[in-house]
């Protein structure tokens, strides 16, 4: 037999090759003082006013500081680069930028750095996906018209009045405007952004505690601490290496193997073991995300007085406590209002605002649905996208709750849509015939952000086309109110209108979750469920 | 031989056009790509219109296809939504997947054929039976199970390998993922070789070779194996394309940023340019691999050459 020795030789070679790679476990790719963290490929080019998802936002949060910054713990908007933001009428603002701030290439941050950046962000021909953030500033309709080409390059409401001062005139009263300025779209931009845009996008330059050392699109970004950072929140580690993972399961496995330091999205399938696997190095904290079921009010069957009762009944049929406990293992909290606990009581969060309508009461649910004329069309289809986020499981669970309450196992079914793009497509074309999945991640921690974009008539994210004059009026009054406590009171009244009509069924508040290696300490997630990188200590 | 090659090359044209057109239509049927770009919030209508214009999505599909194909022939595969040219994505993804495929094919050839010869020469013996059972197990277990299991055991429990592959994706790191990717095909190669070998062992020419008093290893390698490998070569050749396109599962498990990863991202984000571009190249790979297989036939078996 001559073949046998060959086989043995091949097997031995394979074994040897395996052994040669066996140096992996234990060592981290980070290096001294540098931590490695899981990352996803940003969907859009990394420009502040073009980044609307968490992965790109993560980087911008490390390399940019704006006029305001949201406190990672309390979510309160605090002055960062802003020395003063003055107004007398909630419509004309004078902003003074602090002295001594620089971009990491040495260029000073001036009033012009902000005004130029905002004009760029608002401009239609720059295709910025966050352009609507500048919609409150006067002249937006010229720079970003609803149709046709833009007729002005700059917002008429923005004026540079000194090296460090500029004025903003809004097209309506908006008292919480200063508090929105912590959002990354309002970040200042250095000259190189405009003069050599391609180079800037391939390696962004900002004014935050980190600078980008290298960036290989699609696979890794290495950020190092900026030693000359002038701000108060200097990095407490030497740097962060962000590694793109295709699957959060692999990232989690890498943390277990000591190959990665931080995973900021613990996969649902691992939640069962995460406590023992990571021995306490697991965080699960509330984030400003609320999941709801929205309804198509453009469908006349859902826009009747009876349908209001049906919606309330459906809300009561859902066993939120059980679904969040068994399916989500405590990473979701049953919702009792339409905002988020991260706002805090002062910020407008009201636990229990929804009252009995958000409590599990199958008998009452069935009664209400019958009083309201039964399910429109005789059955319920909950539409969701099946490609990400394990939405199928909870939609099935919600349907199961509803079917149990109604005693009819065919009353509610899930209606999966293949891709997120197609799901959004069907929503924007108003093709929903029943409730559909809606998730709202706040842009900034303000009660206004949980209400106006979602329920104001024709607002940008009012996908169900809900409209209520009383709600709109209360929002307008709240925005015009200069005293913030009174304004929040008015917003809460507006939220009461949403409740009385059950405009959308609140399901649960979502938590951010993260797991980390024993090398790290002081790991925390901010209210946007992004790790507070600059506070993490290594070793 | 020259006319044969030419004929095969001409046959590739309609296949290429048909395949790309189908993919183009399928991606377009999935809905409006711009709809998913702005996250849970709808893009404002002006930006949507602007983006559609920029990506040429406002034109009818046939026109989009013609423009696209026109551009492809000048080497322009368009721009992905994150602002990167698709050719740049390809330049980073294809080398990685090619390396992975090479590792996988090497495993198929070395282990698959060796095991095949081993079993084929000893039919009915315990070695044969146990390897047959083993291949059956490998075929019946899905790739993702094998992959996750090996990752967990070798990567986490025993710490022999890193559970994920670094962005550089060196050959050494690709051994385990390559083995996982190859596993099912490897089992098929073993079984194919075994059957083919066992059949040809009784052939007249083998008997003649043995009767001539040729050394046994010469009979096996020069006479028996050369003829028995034709179906195996067909399989491996066709498998190269399948491995490159089907690496999605393996690449995801081991975090390899290759073709499968880019395709997955492209489909998830409904990025027409990425998906069509990568599939176009994959179609070409399939066609070329098939062509090579046909040419190899001619080399292995003179009867085909002159037919």
TrEMBL record, chain A:
Pfam families attached to this UniProt entry: SBP_bac_5
Keywords on record: Signal
Secretion signal span: 1-29
CDD domains: PBP2_NikA_DppA_OppA_like
Coiled coil segments of this chain: none
GO annotation terms (biological process): peptide transport
A cellular-component GO term for this protein: ATP-binding cassette (ABC) transporter complex
Domain Solute-binding protein family stretches: 78-461
InterPro entries: Peptide/Ni-bd, SBP_5, SBP_5_dom
MF GO annotations: peptide transmembrane transporter activity
Name the record gives this protein: Oligopeptide ABC transporter substrate-binding protein
Source organism of this protein record: Streptomyces collinus (strain DSM 40733 / Tue 365)
From TrEMBL, chain B:
Keywords linked to the UniProt accession: Cell membrane, Membrane, Transmembrane, Transmembrane helix, Transport
Main location: membrane
Pfam family, one: BPD_transp_1
PANTHER family recorded: DIPEPTIDE TRANSPORT SYSTEM PERMEASE PROTEIN DPPB-RELATED, DIPEPTIDE-TRANSPORT INTEGRAL MEMBRANE PROTEIN ABC TRANSPORTER DPPB-RELATED
One cellular component (GO) term of this entry: plasma membrane
Annotated compartments: Cell membrane
Domain ABC transmembrane type-1: 94-297
A Gene Ontology BP annotation from the UniProt entry: transmembrane transport
CDD domains: TM_PBP2
Protein name, UniProt field: Oligopeptide ABC transporter substrate-binding protein
Membrane topology per record: Multi-pass membrane protein
Sequence intervals crossing the membrane: 12-31, 98-119, 131-154, 174-192, 232-254, 274-300
Family, per entry: Belongs to the binding-protein-dependent transport system permease family.
């Amino acid at each position: 037999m001559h073949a046998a020795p060959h086989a043995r030789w091949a097997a031995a070679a394979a074994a040897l090759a395996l052994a040669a790679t066996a140096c992996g476990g234990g060592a981290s790719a980070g290096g001294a003082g540098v931590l490695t963290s899981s990352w996803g490929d940003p969907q859009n080019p990394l420009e502040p006013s073009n980044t609307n998802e968490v992965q790109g936002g993560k980087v911008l949060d490390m390399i940019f500081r704006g006029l305001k910054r949201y406190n990672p713990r309390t979510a309160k908007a605090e002055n960062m680069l802003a020395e003063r933001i003055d107004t007398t009428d909630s419509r004309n603002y004078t902003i003074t930028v602090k002295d001594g701030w620089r971009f990491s290439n040495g260029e000073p941050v001036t009033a012009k750095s902000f005004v130029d950046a905002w004009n760029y962000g608002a401009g239609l021909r720059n295709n910025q996906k966050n352009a609507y953030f500048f919609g409150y500033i006067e002249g937006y309709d010229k720079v970003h018209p609803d149709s046709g080409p833009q007729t002005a390059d700059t917002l008429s409401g923005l004026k540079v009045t000194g090296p460090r001062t500029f004025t903003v005139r809004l097209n309506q009263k908006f008292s919480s405007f200063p508090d929105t300025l912590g959002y990354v779209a309002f970040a200042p931009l250095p000259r190189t952004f405009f003069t050599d845009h391609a180079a800037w996008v391939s390696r962004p330059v900002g004014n935050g505690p980190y600078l980008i050392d290298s960036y290989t699109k699609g696979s890794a970004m290495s950020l190092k601490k900026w030693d000359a950072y002038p701000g108060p929140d200097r990095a407490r580690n030497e740097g962060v290496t962000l590694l793109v993972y295709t699957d959060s399961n692999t990232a989690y496995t890498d943390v277990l193997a000591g190959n990665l330091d931080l995973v900021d999205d613990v996969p649902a399938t691992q939640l069962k073991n995460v406590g023992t696997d990571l021995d306490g190095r697991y965080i699960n904290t509330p984030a400003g995300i609320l999941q709801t079921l929205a309804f198509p009010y453009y469908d006349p069957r859902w826009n009747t007085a009876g349908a209001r009762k049906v919606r309330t009944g459906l809300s009561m049929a859902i066993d939120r406590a059980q679904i969040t406990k068994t399916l989500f293992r405590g990473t979701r909290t049953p919702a009792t209002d339409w905002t988020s606990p991260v706002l805090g009581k002062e910020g407008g969060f009201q636990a229990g605002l929804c009252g009995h309508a958000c409590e599990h009461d199958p008998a009452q649910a069935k009664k209400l649905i019958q009083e309201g004329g039964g399910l429109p069309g005789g059955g319920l289809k909950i539409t969701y996208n099946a490609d990400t986020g394990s939405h199928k499981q909870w939609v099935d669970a919600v349907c199961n709750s509803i079917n149990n309450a109604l005693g009819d196992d065919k009353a509610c079914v899930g209606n999966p849509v293949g891709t997120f793009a197609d799901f959004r497509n069907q929503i924007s074309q108003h093709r929903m015939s029943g409730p559909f999945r809606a998730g709202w991640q706040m842009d900034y921690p303000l009660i206004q952000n949980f209400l106006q974009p979602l329920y104001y008539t024709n607002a940008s994210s009012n996908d169900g086309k809900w409209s209520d004059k009383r709600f709109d009026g209360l929002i307008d009054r709240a925005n015009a109110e200069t005293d913030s406590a009174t304004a929040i009171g008015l917003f809460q009244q507006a939220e009461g209108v949403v409740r009385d009509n059950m405009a959308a069924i609140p399901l649960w508040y979502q938590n951010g979750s993260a797991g980390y290696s024993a090398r790290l300490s002081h790991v925390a997630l901010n209210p946007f469920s992004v790790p507070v990188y600059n506070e993490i200590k290594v070793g | 031989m020259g006319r044969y090659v030419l004929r095969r090359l001409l046959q590739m044209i309609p296949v290429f056009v048909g395949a790309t057109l189908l993919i183009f239509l399928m991606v377009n049927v999935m809905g409006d790509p711009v709809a998913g770009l702005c996250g849970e919030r709808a893009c404002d209508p002006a930006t949507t219109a602007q983006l559609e214009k920029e990506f040429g999505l406002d034109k009818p599909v046939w026109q989009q296809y013609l423009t696209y194909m026109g551009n492809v022939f000048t080497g322009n595969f368009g721009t992905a939504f994150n602002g990167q040219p698709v050719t740049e994505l390809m330049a980073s993804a294809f080398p990685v997947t090619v390396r992975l495929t090479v590792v996988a094919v090497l495993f198929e050839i070395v282990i698959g054929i060796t095991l095949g010869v081993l079993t084929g020469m000893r039919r009915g013996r315990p070695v044969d039976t146990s390897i047959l059972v083993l291949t059956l197990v490998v075929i019946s277990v899905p790739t993702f199970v094998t992959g996750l299991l090996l990752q967990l055991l070798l990567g986490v429990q025993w710490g022999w390998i890193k559970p994920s592959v670094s962005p550089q994706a060196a050959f050494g790191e690709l051994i385990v993922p390559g083995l996982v990717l190859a596993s099912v095909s490897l089992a098929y190669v073993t079984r194919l070789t075994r059957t083919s070998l066992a059949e040809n062992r009784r052939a007249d020419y083998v008997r003649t070779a043995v009767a001539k008093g040729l050394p046994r290893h010469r009979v096996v390698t020069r006479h028996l194996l050369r003829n028995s490998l034709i179906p195996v070569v067909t399989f491996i050749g066709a498998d190269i394309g399948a491995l490159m396109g089907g690496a999605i599962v393996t690449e995801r498990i081991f975090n390899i940023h290759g073709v499968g990863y880019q395709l997955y991202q492209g489909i998830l984000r409904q990025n027409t340019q990425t998906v069509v571009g990568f599939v176009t190249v994959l179609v070409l790979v399939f066609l070329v691999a098939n062509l090579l297989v046909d040419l190899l036939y001619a080399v292995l078996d003179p009867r085909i050459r002159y037919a």
